[in-house]
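Quick board copy: two proteins, each given as sequence then tokens.
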Amino acid sequence: MRALVISDLHSNLQAIEWVLETAPKYDVVWNLGDTVGYGANPNEVVNLARKLGGIVVRGNHDRICTGNFKLGEYRDLSQLALFAANWTQKILSAENTKWLSHLPRGPVRPLGRKVACVHGSPWNEDEYMIFKEDAWAAFMMCRARIILCGHTHRQVGWVKNRRGLTLLKPVFEPDCADQFIIQLQKSNRYLFNPGSVGQPRDGDWRASFAIYDDAELSWTWCRAPYDFRAAQRGIRRAGLPRGLATRLRDGS
């Protein structure tokens, strides 16, 4: 079984379409959340996510863009995020709003105790798992052997074994389609982030995603160049802030 692992599509239709066009062969899709927000094509991207099936975890932007936000949460959003959330809430169809509203919070377990899929952390979809302490807490909180998360928009991972925790990061050739493969060991535990399809924030503009191969016990980080200029034009035509378009080229 090979799973296409995607996260943080953020209404970027050009990016997800190209990922689906160029991704290695897969059997199922695991979407770690934030299907909407920021980008100019929320309905088109939601329609595509619904068609793909598999599992879809609720992300914080999926929640906020359907009007389901926590007390005071708007005050914590950046101006770009707030503007985009309000715009998206108005643009989403009633059917797509309902679908997003009913997405499950993580952890979602597509392979029983083996894999747990979350958006932010196993205990909170709004939590960023960035530092070593975050990874330790995730392994303590969630007993799955492999934890898959999104939210940070960065491709990064941690391996836990008897020696402790070790940081894992891919290395790619610039500006082309590329892959970075990690062979998994049954005695280890792992935390992986596939990065963001629609809005990478690691200084690399290419759409990022991953392939989990359960039979071969491998994790493959992938980068895919796409027509980010078309995505930028859509953002500008929609009247969204220009900063949302600029960051697509910068990977920020």
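And the next:
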Amino acid sequence: MKKQLKDAEHSKKRAKIMLVDDEQMVIDSISTLLEMETDYAIFSFLSPIDALKMLKKEPVDVVISDFMMPDMDGLEFLAEARGLRPDTISILLTGYAHKDNAIRAINEVGLFQYIEKPWDNEQLELIIRNGLANKSLKESLQEKVRELDIANQELEQKVEIRTRALREKQAQLVQSAKMASLGKLSAGMSHELNNPAASLQRGAEQLRAAFSQLQAANLKIGTFSFLAAQLERLEALDEAADQRAKQPVNLDALSRIDREHELEVWLEEQKNDHALELVPSLVTLGYAPADLVELARNFSPAEFNVVVAWLCAAYTIHSLLTEIALSTNQISEIVKALKAYTYMDQAPRQSVDVHEGLDNTLIILSSKLKTGVDVRREYNNNLPFIEAYGSELNQVWTNIIDNAIGAMEGQGKIVLKTFQEDSWVVVEIKDTGPGIPQDIQEKIFDPFFTTKSPGEGTGLGLNISHNIIVQKHKGTVTVDSRPGETCFTVKLPINFENPQIEA
């Protein structure tokens, strides 16, 4: 018989747990145990057929089923229940424990846990809590993916509309010789949109694969009966991964290689078969062998290896979400900069952190940097914020750094140095490329001048950057180049309304 709740309205807010067993004593025993937990609403059935009738009408969060029952066995029941409610957590309770049954249950009906009779009450409660936590996390991640898909679709539509508008504007400008230069700028801006748009598309594709890895790790985690303290540690690890995705650990190439080797050796000593895949994420998260030793104290060896895989997958998702958000903002900022140039709008002045703009630019260009470019930051920790048009400054950093990557053909070193000089903030961007010939250095800021092959550049990037720095910010930008080293120096006033006044 179905056991009715005293307060049906309140039960809708609680986790719904269904008990299915042909022995009333078993149902009464588990019900008594679970009713002590006020967050649970219990539904009990002696017949799996009656239980299926309820599942057709409304969902439940957890199903605990006996294995041997007269109408159908537990696996048949759970298979049909899964067909009706795929997201329900399934737990099989049986006195006929057998390895083949466990394997069949996991493979065929997506079983969350397999428990032998007589059961341990504390273990059963832990399994239910773990199952509910797993279900909640899965639903949360699915919702984030759905939101991302919707945002991506909306962004694609906006980009398509704005790109179409740019092309129409370009077609009109081409007809007028007086507006020819603006037409070329519009084409150049359309090209500039490709970098963040491609980064956004790539991030969305990688996110799907990373989400699959995280789901696999979550399923493995669900097989363990973690204590409350261990679950709290997992939550803390996830929060730390989210924060680290926004502020990744930055190491030079040699230090990173050394750290990865140390972690790989340590993980292999722990019989971890995926050490090589995990160490890049662990290094970026800031882990050293000592940190893993401390983490391992909280889990058994088998639990630890699964937790490390789960942590790396969670960090990858947080990192991709951060990169996608930055790409979305970059597209919006580039469009705003175009509007400002064409007098359709004015970019907002704001208090700008130069370091943040440089770091965001490196993230946007990360796919190009990964091919073999070592970036070293020599930042002044006390650098003041400046009054500036932030989106347009980011465009300057993108143009200069992207040109440096291209000049080095994806192999070399870039040094970003910042310091304060009286009432000015100075940014130096050095690369180890072949250098700019002396006879053309005075021309590189001219509009449409380019040393690239036809079709590879518009010749507008450095000209736009020069105009943003000099005209809009009353600063200066110069270049000093020789074979093996090119340095762009940008000087920006802390307050460009009065650039000569001491800050």
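Board note added afterward: Confidence is low (pLDDT under 50) at residues 1-12, 170-188, 340-346.
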